Amino acid sequence: MSSRFFHLFDTALGTCAVAWGPEWLLAVRLPAVEGGDLAVRMGRAVPGAVAGEPDAPTAAAIIGIRALLAGEKHDLREVRLDMADTGPFDRAVYAIARAIPPGRTLTYGQVAKRLTPDMLGDMPPSIVPRAVGQSLGRNPWPIVVPCHRVMAAGGGMGGFSAPGGVETKLALLRIEGAALPAQQLGLF
Predict the structure, then answer these.
(1) Which residues are tagged catalytic?
(2) What's the whole-model pTM score?
(3) Under DSSP, is residue 122 helix (H, G, I), strand (E, B) or coil?
(4) Cβ atoms 9, 18 nearer than 8 A
(5) Structural contact between residues 4 and 51, judged by C-beta atoms closer than 8 angstroms
(6) Where are any strands of DSSP class E within 12-156?
(7) What single DSSP character describes residue 9?
(8) How does pLDDT run across 158-175, given as a tens digit for each residue?
């Protein structure tokens, strides 16, 4: 019998998915704007996971995700994540991203500056912001680890690896009521 499960659920943005293990969340998937089978995508993200009914901590995470995607300033920091396969640099970046409140943003450079020297090892300072972006691109828990709240310098959006790319990132920021530069809001 599997100890890994996934569940699809509807939100204001579309159908999302979560996967969990015995105690913690293993992955989150946002709606597939290009189509495709979300259950298949989750199965690839968490091999061996089978469809199941959420346990209490996972049900609470789903309630929080739904609330956030409905426009509530809901904080998902209480959601427990399984970081067994997550390296120390990514853990540090994710902790900083999780501390960004809904409706607020930081730049990749600002996240980089919050990393302590022991987290960076021998990484040259000039590449740390790029490494932060790559770390967020690997984020298996989008919305719970709010990588959409991290922007490029100068008001640029930066990338977003979830389905829909930058348009999804912009939609999430709008839902949260984040103050964005006029060009990002379609006013230019």
Answers:
(1) 147
(2) 0.87
(3) coil
(4) yes
(5) no
(6) 14-20, 25-29, 50-51, 106-107, 150-151
(7) E
(8) 665 665 667 777 878 888
* Cα 125 to Cα 122: distance, rounded to the nearest angstrom: 9
Q: Is 165 helix (H, G, I), strand (E, B) or coil?
A: helix
Amino acid present at 122:
D
Per-residue tokens: 147:
């990588």
Q: Assess whether pLDDT exceeds 50 at residue 183.
A: no
Q: Cβ contacts of residue 135 below 8 Å, gap of 6+? A: 89, 90, 93, 94
Mean pLDDT of all residues in 11-32 = 89
Residue 164, sorted as left (phi over 0), alpha (psi -120 to 50) or beta, turns out to be left
Query: In terms of Cα–Cα distance, which of 152, 173, 160, 185 is closest to 101?
Result: 173
Q: Which residues in 141-165 are b (16+ Cβ under 10 Å) and which e?
A: bbbbbbbbbbbeeeeebbbbebbbe
